[in-house]
Amino acid sequence: MVANAPIASPCQLICSLDLQSGLCFGCGRSRQEIAQWTRYTDDQRAKIMESLPERMDAFEA
After folding, report:
1. Is the pLDDT of residue 25 over 50?
2. Per residue in 1-25, is it b (16+ CB within 10 Å) or e — as a string?
3. SS3 state at 24
4. What is the pTM of this model?
């Protein structure tokens, strides 16, 4: 049995939060998501990862 690799952090080393949305300009995660990332299950991380492209698109709009 081969274990699945954990989901890597989406961190881009641009740690700056948008004051209006509360999301990081670099990765799109909230402060809480960033702080809790290593405590989340793979399923929780996958769900967050799925939402990040939409969050990042909102910055560009």
Report:
1. yes
2. eeeeeebeebeeeeeeeeeeeebbe
3. strand
4. 0.82
